[in-house]
Amino acid sequence: MKITLTEENYIKAIYHLGGNGKKSVNTNAIADVLKTKASSVTDMIKKLSEKDYADYKKYQGVSLTDN
Fold this sequence. Notes:
mainly alpha, two-stranded antiparallel ribbon, 3 helices
């Protein structure tokens, strides 16, 4: 499955903020790093979750899957 540059940037941010992607990361922290709105982060996280790159739990944050 092809990944966009924007998706790659989000994955990198989650990876670094979450200690190699294993810890759950707050969407506001991702928004701060990527200099964007939290709502935009949530939209992208949902896309990454649909592609099985991220595990998103509303109000709990996001972590990366093993894919």
